[in-house]
Design a protein that fits this description.
The chain is of the alpha+beta class. The chain contains 7 helices and 7 strands. Helix 4 links the parallel strand 3 and strand 4. The protein is globular and about 55 Å long.
Length: 203
């Protein structure tokens, strides 16, 4: 990893190393995908990532499997559950509604959604808790609250500790949650994976 012209600022090197480590620890990206993301994010810095070394994590996915099980089962309740959905909540909600339209266009009806974002993954990795955003597609607070209660119930069924005051104004927090997702090239996540899981469980 080197700059094509001039030396790299130490702060820039630190920022790149942090992002590379975070992407690897997330467990959602291959080595090639991580390099591609770094190239895109630091495109204006004129950096050659050809020789950049990336080591994927070797996590067990023990905790993540519980989360994944709950998200799979939520499809049976008409709730589309999305892993790594956008960078922040605003992007996550936009992606959830995009998926809702896609499902409707293919004759599937979702009652509500839940997701966590890449920012939430970052918090889980470094702070040991994971926040889950939830809602409905009709801006109906009563319905959204029922969605939240259903999501919380399925998470509890996987023996995950939930911190939530049953308010639509607050996210559901899994606390503690030690992030331990290992990379698996055989599985699809994000909105594409959520679509496949939802359709499979609704057919």
């Amino acid at each position: 990893m080197k700059r094509t012209s001039g030396k790299m600022d130490p702060d820039l090197v630190e920022e790149i190393e942090y992002m590379k480590d975070l992407l690897a620890k997330s467990g959602f990206f291959s080595v090639d995908e991580i390099i591609e993301i770094l190239e895109d994010q630091f495109i204006e810095e004129d950096i050659d990532f050809t020789d950049c070394e990336v080591s994927l994590n070797d996590y067990s996915s023990e905790n993540f499997s519980k989360l994944e099980n709950a998200f799979h089962k939520l499809a049976s309740e008409g709730i589309v559950a999305i892993h790594n959905c956008g960078y922040d909540i605003e992007e996550g909600v936009a992606d959830a509604f995009e998926l809702y339209v896609h499902l409707n266009n293919n004759k599937f009806t979702a009652e509500g959604f839940c997701f966590y974002t890449f920012e939430d993954i970052e918090d889980a990795i470094f702070d040991g808790n994971l926040k889950i955003t939830f809602g409905d597609f009709e801006n109906d607070e009563d319905k959204a609250l029922e969605i939240g209660k259903t999501v919380a119930g399925y998470l509890k069924n996987e023996n995950l500790n939930i911190d939530w005051n049953e308010s639509v104004n607050n996210q559901i927090e899994i606390n503690p949650f030690i992030w331990d997702k290992g990379y698996n090239e055989e599985k699809e996540y994000e909105i594409e994976g959520a679509y496949d899981v939802f359709v499979k469980n609704r057919c």
